[in-house]
Structure formats: structure tokens, C-alpha cells
Amino acid sequence: MMQHIPLQDLYNKDNRYRAKLINSLSGFKSANVIGTCDNIGNTNLAIFSSVVHLGASPALVGFIMRPDTVPRDTLNNILLTKHYTINQVSSTFWQQAHQTSARYPPNHSEFSETDLSVSFIDGHQAPFVEQSLVKYAVVLKEIIPIASNNTQFVIGEITDILCQQSAIKADGYLDLESLNTVCVSSLDSYHITQHLGRLSYAKPETPLTPLTIDGERGTTQ
Amino acid sequence: MMQHIPLQDLYNKDNRYRAKLINSLSGFKSANVIGTCDNIGNTNLAIFSSVVHLGASPALVGFIMRPDTVPRDTLNNILLTKHYTINQVSSTFWQQAHQTSARYPPNHSEFSETDLSVSFIDGHQAPFVEQSLVKYAVVLKEIIPIASNNTQFVIGEITDILCQQSAIKADGYLDLESLNTVCVSSLDSYHITQHLGRLSYAKPETPLTPLTIDGERGTTQ
């Protein structure tokens, strides 16, 4: 049975109930940990479920920063160095990724606190998560204040991609499922995925064609 | 083996290769269809993979609008009426949802073209998708231009939630998986999910506790 919940009814519930319900509404969310460091190389890592694709040319990615919540160090470091990394979370380290949301003191690194390993590439200051199989270096482009609720939309340009080679298909599609990338629902729930299929580009009056994982016309595997 | 791809290498590949790869980087994306209508009640429906949670109090949700691509009618209608609906896509109509991305003429409704049914609630102009089991009415709050790539960030406030009652857990968590809500990867790939678990609120020096689907401490089901 469908239930109709006017929003004002939710404002009578406790904050956590409302937060869990509202956080569920956008659907499944991406699970990423963002790596940064300060000017003297202290590393920081924090989980975000709001990373969103913005465009391929230039290659831009955004995420929502809530200034009043945990990962304040992330924003401070990005403002200092302009560099950050975004690392997809997989089922091999989802609990460690969740643990990065704890309020560690600024001089503690979430890398060592959660037993995740640091790696670097030449020309980029921010640390990557060694365990992540799809990750990329990002340079800050703009920070847009969102007046409606005092959050900020942090936008960066991707400069380097590090990815498990086997996941890159001939047409550019990344088979994230083969790498066990997870997604998030609500505030604290994690999921792996099961493929339904890829579909051809939609046109009016033309039936959709299933695509193989390699992007060829044919039945889905 | 990990492959390192500097972004300039991708600019030598064809546009579609680059688009599929860059679109894969943010991880799994939410799958939603946005319902709107014009001033004389012509309905429109378009799929978006960029719907993102912005905050619970007030209850705000955002999505990215690319002015130069298909669902231009969506933005025009939102500007006209200020009303829209966001409807989670499930595995019972994922192909119909994908088909809404075809470039139908403005006087054709994607509802009838894709055999999805319209429903309404009192006090809100925009059409819901009957088949969707988690959906909500949204009133436009602000539209933020993103200078970096001429997209727009459309922000709205949720006024009414319609949800399958069985999915609402005691602590406010919505069990989207039980409703077969799908997620998207890259441009054309759809996935259902499999639950890894819910985790307790993370604190320093405190082991995480698995939560049941109802949010109680205990083993995951």
C-alpha cells in the first residue's frame, strides 16, 4: 500500500528519523572516499555519498560539502592545496570507508586509523587509497555556495585516472560491478550490484536493443 | 593491473568513448524520472542520473540540468509551474524509464510513448509515475548556474512523499532494495542491488556494529 506523507508530518518526528527517510529519497548514492593533505603532508580521508558526474568535456565532478559536519578537514585541505583524489569504495573495504566518517582529531590520519594504504602519483599532492580500483586526481575548479541550506557544491576537474585495466571495456564503459564498487542508501546502508543490462541510445519509435557488457548489440550476458 | 590514464590521452579518443569512461567515474548513480507539465497540462517525463540529496531540514534535493541535451522540456516546465515530481526507477520499468531519454517532439508525452501511467495528488501540478514505489512532490527553490561547463544545478524542496508502506522501517530507513530500485553506471547500464549491511554511527576508537535492516544493533540479516 502506498503511504502519503506530507512533509510537515515529518517535522514532528525526531531528527534522525527524518534524516534517514529524506536521505533515502534520492535513490542509491555513489560511495567514494576523498583523499586530501595539508601543506606539510598530513593526510586526510573522508567518505562522501554525494559525488556526482558533471560533464565529460571538460571532465568535471562535483560533491556537496556540509560545513557543519564531520569532514571539515577535507574542505580546508582542498582550499590549501587545490588537490584531492576521489576513490571508489568497493566491498573489500566498505567498513573501513564508513569508519572514516568518525570525528578523528585533525592530526590523526584516517588512513592509518582505518588501515587503508596511501599512494601517490607524480605531479599531484593528494593521497590515493591503494585499495581502491577506480580513483582519480582532481584539481579544484570552483566552489559554489548553496543559499538554500548553506551547503557548498565543490567542483573539480579530473586530471588523471587510475583504474583496474580489466574493467575498461572497448567502448569506454567501466565495468564497476566486476570491481565490486558499492553504493549507499540512506545514511548507513551499503550495497553491491547485480547487472540488469546495458541499453542502446533511445530514439523515438525505435525499440531499445540490449547491449553486451562490451557495448555490442546483442543479448545481455 | 592498474592503468594510469592522463586525461589528455582521453581527448585523443572519440567523444563517446570519453563520455562513457568519464560517466563511469563517479560510481553508481541514482536512477530517477522527473515528471513535469506545462501550463495547459501537457505532461513530460525524463530520466536523470544526477539527482542528489542536499539536506534533510529543510528537505532539499538537487539535479544537474544540461541545457543543450534532451530533456529541455523538463526545465521549461519547472520554470513555468515551479512544480515537479521525482520518481525512483525500479526493475519493473527500467527500460521504459531509459526510453524517456529519446528526443520526442514537445507535444508528445513520454508517459504515453512509454506506457507509464500518470497520477496526481491534490495541491501539486506535476504528474507522478504510478508505477514508481518511492516518489515525491518538489517545489523549485533555486537554480544555480555552474560556470565551469554551463550546466545548471536545480534545487527543490520536497513537500509530499509517496512511498510503499512496507519499505518504511521503524527508524526512518527506506528499504529501497525491497522495492527493486535500480541504479545506473556510465550512460546506459542498469543494476539492482544486494545488501551488504547497515553500520552503526562511526566513532573514533570504537568498532562499528552491524545493524539489522530495522536499524537495531545485531547481525545483518
A few lines on this structure:
Chains A, B: Its cofactor is FMN. By secondary structure, the first copy, chain A, is of the alpha+beta class.
Key attributes of the depicted protein:
Pnp Oxidase, Chain A; 5 helices; homodimer; 4-stranded antiparallel sheet; 7-stranded antiparallel sheet; alpha+beta; 221 residues; 14 strands
Annotated CATH homologous superfamily of chain A? Electron Transport, Fmn-binding Protein, Chain A
- What is the string of helix and strand elements of chain A? EHHEEEEEHEHHEEEEEEE
Helix percent of chain A reads 10-25%
Work out the number of β strands of chain A.
14
Terminal-residue CA separation of chain A: 35 Å
Rg from Cα of chain A: 19 Å
The CATH architecture of chain A is: Roll
| Number of helices, counting only DSSP H or I runs of 4 residues or more of chain A | 5
| Spatial order of strands in the largest sheet of chain A | 4-3-7-10-11-6-5
Pfam family, one (chains A, B): Flavin_Reduct
Protein name (chains A, B): Flavin reductase
Family (chains A, B): Belongs to the flavoredoxin family.
Domain Flavin reductase like (chains A, B): 26-165
